[in-house]
Amino acid sequence: MEIFQAPYIAITVILAAYLLGAIPFGLLFARWLTGKDPREHGSGNIGATNALRTSGKKVGILTLLADIGKGSLAVALTDYLQDDITLVAAVALAVFIGHVFPVYLKFKGGKGVATMFGVLIPWLPWVASATFITWFLLFKLTRYVSLASVVAAIMLPLFAWSFGILSWSTDEPSSLFSCIILGLLVAARHIGNMRRLLAGDEPKTGAG
Q1: Rounded to whole angstroms, how far apart are CA atoms 138 and 127?
Q2: Smaller CB count within 10 Å for the chain: N or C?
Q3: Which residues of the chain have pLDDT under 50?
Q4: Does 97 fall in a domain?
Q5: Could you tell me if residue 44 is inside a domain?
Q6: Could you tell me if residue 148 is inside a domain?
Q7: pLDDT in the model for residue 167
Q8: Does 37 reside within a domain?
Q9: The domain containing residue 77 runs over which residues?
Q10: DSSP class per residue in 23-89
């Protein structure tokens, strides 16, 4: 099904994806269920990890599912309505950037790991699987969410490139470009975590 033929419609779709990605579910769930503002506790981040640490398991799980879900919804719907991998790649990037730089919160958003996985699942499932396995194994080994996230983000464009050659995923340049941007942004958003890790101040998750 192809309905986004006019350029202005494609631009509108990309903008809508950004606005969807910008919805700060971590903040909304925390305020609704606990009355807390996650920006004032823990790392100050609105993502699932800080939501879990500061507002409890329920808020953390809801935030994780919502952040994954908004990425998957935007990409899956675009892919269904328009058979254009370049537009799908642009929407994937837009919804992710919306999460990381949300207009509703003066462009101060989450670190993007859950939403990164969300866009990859319907878009590049083999890449999503390899990236998640990398994240999961490193997290189980170290219990550092941040370290696992950075390594997975760095591996993401490498998986996209190699799987494209193997024809397990698309080899379109637009997809590889978007994966490079996704990986770089996730890694960049964790610079502070890496500094704390090197200083021995980065908290583990689920340790003990």
Answers
A1: 17
A2: C
A3: 207-208
A4: yes
A5: yes
A6: yes
A7: 67
A8: yes
A9: 7-199
A10: --HHHHHHHHHT---GGGSTT---SHHHHHHHH-HHHHHHHHHHHHHHHHHHHHHHHHH---HHHHH
CB-based contact 42:50 (threshold 8 Å)? yes
Burial class, 207, CB count within 10 angstroms (exposed 0-12 / middle 13-18 / buried 19+): exposed
The reported pLDDT for the residue numbered 44 is: 77
| Inter-residue contact 109 to 116 (CB < 8 Å) | no
Contact 128, 179 (CB under 8 A): no
Residue 50 φ/ψ, nearest 5 degrees: -70, -35
CA distance 7 to 129: 33
Contacts of 110 (CB under 8 A, 6+ apart): 24, 26, 45, 46, 47, 67, 99, 100, 189
Structure tokens, 76: 């899956």
Q: What is the pLDDT at residue 208?
A: 37
Number of domains in the chain: 1
| Amino acid present at 79 | D
Question: What confidence tens digit (pLDDT) does each residue in 93-141 have?
Answer: 999 999 999 999 999 999 999 999 999 999 999 999 999 999 999 999 9
